[in-house]
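Form P-L/3: holo structure prediction, ligand phosphoenolpyruvate.
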Amino acid sequence: MRTPIIAGNWKMHNTIAAALELVKGIHYGLPWPGEVEVIVAPPTTAISKVADFLQDSYIQVAGQDLFWEESGAYTGEISGTLLQDAGASAVIIGHSERRQYFHETDATVNKKIKAALALQLMPIVCVGETLAEREAGQVTEVVRTQILEGLAGLTTAEVTDLVIAYEPIWAIGTGKTATPQQAEDVHVIIRHIIAEQFGNDAADAVRILYGGSVKPANSKELLSLPNVDGALVGGASLKAADFIEIIKSVS
Ligand code: PEP
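OUTPUT (holo model):
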């Protein structure tokens, strides 16, 4: 039984005051979510205040990225230890915006996943193809490479502890959503890749989220797919009412 996850990626939005207002809106607007894990990923500056407010809440806090070293002379970077110290229990790794604008590679994603797992910080590992790759029929090849290189050297148990987010890049922030069939097809492919590399137990246990313009109008259909174990939500996670509707649509 895979407990679904609804995670909100706030990206570079929200001052501390706005972050607190948003998280209070979710916490008070939905006192109990049911059998679903709810995670918010505020900008780093707001993590500590948000986590303090959520101490007795079901809502967990995630970082949006981490650096693999624990401490040291790495100006501007945030380690897993520092994220945990601020109150995070999960971390998004390898988001397409980090790959695109900050030159992250599957090799750096791999180091980050290992650093997070070593601290028991739950990695939410993003994979997904561009529109050009989809049109060229390369979806399987692209996600296979991202998964095999990103998860290289992990044990079966470690793979079970992480979460994969399938986020087709052409659907992120564009209003274009993968059709339920497109999403389910790639989630099945990802589970097969995990099964081949890490065994059936890991493939059955690993949670695979869908991300890409998820909103209240499409969440019910996407979240009812057999291999979709939740959603990573960008834009629609910035409004408490919309995020709550998405959480409630987990059946
Ligand atoms: C994301 O950035 O992870 C995302 C899925 O964004 P959006 O929901 O806005 O497409």
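COMMENT: Strands lie at 5-9, 37-41, 59-63, 90-93, 122-127, 163-166, 207-211, 230-233.
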